[in-house]
Amino acid sequence: LGFYLLLKGLDSKKQTLFVIASSLCVGFSLWVRSSEITWVCLLLLITYIFHRKQLSWKKVLCFVIPFLLMIGALLQINYSIYENIFRSGYSSLEGESVNPVSNLFKQLFIPFGFNLKFIWLHFYNFVIKYLWFFFVPALLGLIYYFKNIKNKFYPVVVSIVSLFLLVFYGSYWLWGEYGQAAEPEFLIGGAHLRYWLPILVLATPFIVLFFAKWKYKKFLICSFVCLLIVFSFNQV
After folding, report:
1. Residues 67 and 23 sit within 8 Å (Cβ to Cβ)
2. Cβ atoms of 177 and 132 closer than 8 Å
């Protein structure tokens, strides 16, 4: 919602209210799950790079000031609960303090290390194989976008954020821990699928684009909806 409102604010020279609302939404989202701050800030940075020529200082400040106030309030809440502005519910469960200086890079970018084998195993089974009816049209829609649409902002954002999330969470081998099965189980309740929901959300417009460009799009859309219904019914 925050990203949508930000794009709406960028489309108009006067819609600063959209920018402020976007800032508050993004800030609140990080209250809910602070560990996502790295890729959210990466998304905002890419947005700024692509749109810097159409951005006034007023709009920049209308986003930055509320956002910093939201983050400042979050850090104050962390301190009041954990006596450390960089701790959270997750880090408090570990039973040891987090060094905000020496471990900052690792915490922000590769908290679970980097393992290509794990990344591919999780991505292939949770996204490509498990959600194939979502993945295939999204991929084809992305390819169509790159070939036929000049403005590359959105696919670049999606690609970079997706790559970051795949590396960030794909290396996480949680099997055998925290009540998880000893061997990988690729189910709708799998943690990795939950971690990669931003990828699925951001990829949705490419599915729409895929359907919009086909001659028999009504038939394809009906088939897609039926697949969703059958899939959901089977999972429940």
Report:
1. yes
2. no
Contacts of 129 (CB under 8 A, 6+ apart): 186
Cβ 78 vs Cβ 137: under 8 Å: no
Which distant-in-sequence residues (6+ apart) come within 8 Å of 217 by Cβ?
Answer: 211
Share of the chain above pLDDT 90, in %: 59
Q: What is the pTM of this model?
A: 0.82
Cα dist. 99→55, 65, 90 in Å? 37, 27, 14
User: pLDDT value at position 15?
Assistant: 83
> Confidence band (pLDDT; 50, 70, 90) for 93?
very low
Query: Pseudo-torsion of CA 28, 18, 163, 213, nearest 10°?
Result: 130
Q: Distance of CA 83 to CAs 87, 89, 159, 167, Å? A: 8, 12, 37, 31
Checking if the pLDDT of 131 tops 90, the result is yes
The mean pLDDT of 43-68, rounded to a whole number, is 90
Cβ 6 vs Cβ 63: under 8 Å: yes
Taking the C-alpha atoms of residue 129 and residue 214, their distance in angstroms, rounded to an integer, is: 24
Residue 90 is inside which H or E element, if any?
A: helix 89-93
Residues 142, 130: Cα–Cα separation, whole Å: 19
DSSP single-letter state for residue 130: T
User: Which two three-digit tokens encode residue 108?
Assistant: 């922000």
